[in-house]
Structures are given as structure tokens and as C-alpha cells.
Amino acid sequence: MSQTNARHDLGSTAPRWLKVFGIVALVLLHLFIVLHLADPDRYGPGRHTPLDHGVQLP
Amino acid sequence: MTMTPGLRKFVLTAHVASSVGWLGAVVAYLALAVAALTNQDAQTVRAAWIAMGLTGRFVIVPLSLASLLIGLIQSLSTPWGLFRHYWVLVKFLLTVFATVILLLHMPTVSYFASVAVETDNANLDGLWGELLHAGGGLLVLLVNTTLSVYKPGGMTRYGRRKQHAEVL
User: Fold this and answer.
1) pLDDT in tens, B60-117
2) Measured distance CA(B168)–CA(B163) in Å, rounded
3) Is A12 on the interface with B (CB under 8 A)?
4) Among residues B47, B37, B35, B31, which one has the least CA distance to residue B120?
5) Is 0.90 topped by the overall pTM?
């Protein structure tokens, strides 16, 4: 572990964990945006219609 | 800017307390959304929106801002720095991202909470959005916690330059 850290500290490229993290973060961010666009009534700002999709007290 | 060891420990305690409090409040928020979605009873949905509005406004938002601000002060006043280590930089960017999304999302929560207070209606479909936002927030906070504990290696170009300059 310490050898890996030392190699990263001296090298000029980003560490492997950062590359893996970046890819996963990009995938999740895309999923988040797609969900907002695909169903704005449920996930997006278009949810401001409480009476259309709501429940009412008896 | 440097801190005395005593002040550094105090700031670290404040940072851990605000960050862990933020995480716990998001879990409680998620529990309210899940309870309302699984129950689907009108009273429960209304109560959940009101409770989520209060939790978001008076607990989650203040703790997120406190965590961000204290973390920033801490990084700039310790040898870790803000731009020297990748894990610190990633943690900072994730916290900024989570805080911005939270602040952009809060007006929607406040709106549904006010509808639940003022009328007999409560939005059921909107709770799915709360699951998505709170779930995403929880994931970001868990990643931040992991980064803080493991402190994975890797220095930025700026960090290596500073370290080289300090050695010389």
C-alpha cells in the first residue's frame, strides 16, 4: 500500500483509484440526468403538480 | 495559515460532527420518504412531506453548509491543503456538488411541505424524486466518509511541486 502511494506521489499520472472513481461518477451522473429527463413528473422540477398525482384526505 | 494542535482538534471535531450529522439526517429523511411510499396513506404522506420540509430546512441545509465551510478552513490550515492530495480535492468537489444540488432542490421540498400544511392534498409521486435525491446524497456522503478514513494516495501536480519546493 505504501509502495503504491509512493509510486503515485512520484509519478505524473492520476492514481488508479481516481480513474475508476471518475468513470463510476460519470456513469451515475448520467443516470441521474437521464432519470430527470425521462420522468420529470416523478424526478424533475415538473413535479409541482400535487393535485394531479396526489392523495387526498377523506 | 497554521493552527495550534488544540484548535486543529477542535475544528476536526466540528467537521466530523457536522458531516456525520448530515449523513444521519439524510438517512432519517430517506426513512420518511420510504415510509410514505410504502404506506401510501394520505395522513402519512402529508406528515412525511411536512417532516421532510422541516428536516431539510433546519437540519440538512445548515449541516451541509457547516461541513463544507469547516472542511474548507481545516484543509487550508493543515499540511493536507485543499489542492495537494487527490482525495481531499475529490471530497471537496463532492461536498460542493451535494450542497449545490441540495440548495437547488430545497424549494421543491418546501413547496410540497407547504401544500401538505395548507391543504388536504399531498403529492405521492413526488416522493420518488426524494428517494433519488436523498439516495444520491447518501451515496456521496458515504464516499466522502470512505475517502476520509482510507485517505487513498496520490498527489496532484501542484502538491508534488509544493512538496519538492519544501524539501529544497
Assistant:
1) 999 999 999 999 999 998 889 999 999 999 999 999 999 999 999 999 999 999 999 9
2) 9
3) yes
4) B47
5) no
CB spacing of A42 vs B125 below 8 angstroms: yes
Which DSSP state fits B85?
B
Interface of A with B in 19-48 (CB under 8 A): 21, 28, 32, 35, 41-45, 47-48
Which chain B residue lies closest to A2 (C-alpha atoms)?
Answer: B153
Q: What is the Cα B81 distance to its own chain's centre?
A: 20
* pLDDT one-digit tens code per residue, B113-167: 999 998 877 778 888 889 999 999 999 999 999 999 999 999 999 999 988 888 8
**Does B124 contact chain A (CB < 8 Å)?**
yes
Residue B63, amino acid:
L
**Cβ contact (<8 Å) for A42 and B152?**
no
User: B55 is written with which cell numbers?
Assistant: 428536516
Closest CA to B67 of B153, B6, B144: B144
Residue A48 backbone dihedrals phi, psi, to 5 degrees = -75, 50
